[in-house]
Fold this protein.
Amino acid sequence: MRLAMVGLGRMGQNMARRLIRGGHEVVVYNRSPDKIELMVKEGAVPAYSPQEAVAKLDPPRVVWLMLPAGEVVDRHVDAFAESLESGDIIIDGANSNFKDDRRRAEALQPRGIHYLDAGVSGGIWGLEQGFCTMVGGDQADFREIAPVLETLAPPEGYLYCGPTGAGHFVKMVHNGIEYALMEAYGEGFDLLKRSAFGDGLDLGRVAHLWNQGSVIRSWLLELLERALAEDPDLASTPGVVADSGEGRWAVIEAVESGVSTPIIAQSLFRRFESQQPDVFSNRVLAALRKGFGGHTVPKDSS
């Protein structure tokens, strides 16, 4: 199958590679031409504008966007829609808000251009292990791109989730769970390290042990095992954790739906805190503790 891959970042580039290796013809377009040239050496077809990319596709044309969520996706949807025709398909593989999917699909409908939302998980390991993919939109369009999904995903690794927005909604919840799992591992290993047994524990070996049949074994724990093997104290890793949006949207959706998600919410707030070097709320706590109990507030040693 021939399709265009737009956006050759870490995910888009590896998805294009996996598709080429799987026998698909991939037209690649990216803002910076150096990444296009790199992919051409690996068998991709180059395009240096949305118009050129569309011209190199056959109806029904399929354009898969792997771009930062938000305005960048909107801009590219509009740019490609100018050249696409009725029956063509745009797929947004960004970590987009499912509400944006509905808006875009509605805007494209008068032109007859179809829209699919694809939540993609796999990170930098997806090239070899496959990309787990959650798809929303018209089921006929899902069937149309099935050969692409079969190549991208591991066995049983893709799913039609429902109408427009469903794919990104499922991915949003997926990422909320991911936030909570990472926070749980972080707290647990912090407790191990700070305990009376911490000096004698090899945390890398503990992680390895728990990956051998334990009920908390996971790919995340395998990644932590590798990280601890390379840097036992994680001294080279700053304790700053960004949030890319999905955790926020999951918590907002939980509030609007009246669903209790305290662990996901707390893991999101912990990420906010990690991005601030001197959290004011902590200073408020220290001042109050000093005020009612006379407890000493340590001076800044910096």
